[in-house]
Automatic annotation (TrEMBL):
Species classification: Bacteria, Pseudomonadati, Pseudomonadota, Alphaproteobacteria, Hyphomicrobiales
Key words of the record: Glycosyltransferase, Transferase
UniProt pathway: Purine metabolism; purine nucleoside salvage
Protein name: Purine nucleoside phosphorylase
Subunit structure: Homotrimer.
Length: 268
C-alpha cells in the first residue's frame, strides 16, 4: 500500500500538484462544481493516476483538482469510490493515505444525505458531529497493525466544527449539527430502516463518508464533514427518494454550499 501511495504522490507532483496544501475536500454527489471556484486550477482524472480507485456514479466527475481558494491551497476529490460500487469498505484507503502523504492536515468530507427529521428540510446544510455505522462494514477490516484500534471519540473535530460554525454565521447560513447514519446502499433505505435510525439517534442517512472518516482518523488527519440534505428519507411525509432527486437538489443547494466552503477555507 505505501509504495502505491508514494507512486501516486510522485505522479501528481510531477504534473502540477507540487507544494503545500491547507486542506483536502471529498466532494459528494452534485457538489463537484466547487472546482469552479478555484484559481490556478490543475486537474487529473482518477483513471490516469496510478492505483487510484474509479468512481462510476453519475454526479461524480472522478477528477483530482488542485488550486487556490480564498488565498489557501486546496485539493479537491471530485467524487469518491463507494462501498456499494466495490464491495470494499476500504475503497478510499489509498486516496486518504495519499492526503496524509502530501502532508495535508485537514480532510473535509461532504455528501448528499437524506434527512430523517422532518424539521431538517431538503436544501439544508448540516455539520456532522458523529456517526452511526449501520453498514456492517469497516475499512480497517484485515488491517493487522495496532493502529486499527483507532478511537472515534471526537472523530468530527470539535475545533474545526467551531470554525465551520463561524464561517456559517459570517455567510448568513443556518448550520445545524447532526448524526449521520451510514447504510451500505445502493438501494435506498426502507421506511422501517429510517424509523430504526430515528430511534438510534440519527439525523441524516447516506451511503458514504463514514469509511473516509475512519480512515482519516487512522492516518491522524483532522476531520470535518458537511451534508447537503437532498431529500426527506423514505416514509417521511410519504417520501420515496431517487438518485435524480439527490442530484437535482444538490445542484440547487450548491451556491449556498460553495459560499459556506469559501468562508470556511478563509477561516482556516
Amino acid at each position: 500500500m505505501q509504495q502505491n501511495v508514494q507512486e501516486a504522490v510522485q505522479f501528481v507532483r510531477a504534473r502540477g500538484f507540487e507544494g503545500r496544501f491547507d486542506a483536502a475536500f471529498v466532494l459528494g454527489t452534485g457538489l463537484g462544481t466547487l472546482v469552479d471556484e478555484l484559481s490556478d486550477a490543475v486537474s487529473l482524472a482518477y483513471a490516469d493516476i496510478p492505483h487510484f480507485p474509479k468512481s462510476g456514479v453519475s454526479g461524480h466527475a472522478g477528477k483530482l483538482v488542485a488550486g487556490t481558494l480564498e488565498g489557501k491551497r486546496v485539493l479537491l476529490f471530485q467524487g469518491r469510490a463507494h462501498y456499494y460500487e466495490t464491495g470494499d469498505a476500504g475503497a478510499m484507503r489509498l486516496p486518504v493515505a495519499f492526503v496524509k502523504e502530501l502532508g495535508i492536515p485537514v480532510l473535509a468530507a461532504t455528501n448528499a444525505a437524506g434527512s430523517v427529521r422532518a424539521s431538517i428540510r431538503p436544501g439544508s446544510l448540516v455539520a456532522i458531529n458523529d456517526h452511526l455505522n449501520l453498514s456492517g462494514a469497516n475499512p480497517l477490516l484485515r488491517d493487522h497493525t495496532e493502529g486499527r484500534f483507532v478511537s472515534l471519540t471526537d472523530a468530527y473535530d470539535p475545533a474545526l466544527r467551531e470554525v465551520l460554525q463561524r464561517a456559517a454565521e459570517k455567510s448568513g447560513i443556518d448550520l445545524p449539527e447532526g448524526v449521520y447514519a451510514w447504510l451500505s446502499g445502493p438501494s435506498f433505505e426502507t421506511p422501517a430502516e429510517i424509523k430504526m435510525v430515528q430511534i438510534l439517534g440519527g439525523d441524516l442517512v447516506g451511503m458514504s463518508t463514514v469509511p473516509e472518516v475512519i480512515l482519516a482518523r487512522y492516518y491522524g488527519l483532522r476531520v470535518v464533514a458537511i451534508s447537503v440534505v437532498t431529500n426527506l428519507a423514505a416514509g417521511i411525509e410519504g417520501a420515496s427518494p431517487s438518485h435524480q432527486e439527490t442530484k437535482d437538489t444538490a445542484a440547487e443547494a450548491s451556491e449556498k454550499f460553495k459560499r459556506l466552503i469559501r468562508s470556511f477555507v478563509a477561516e482556516l
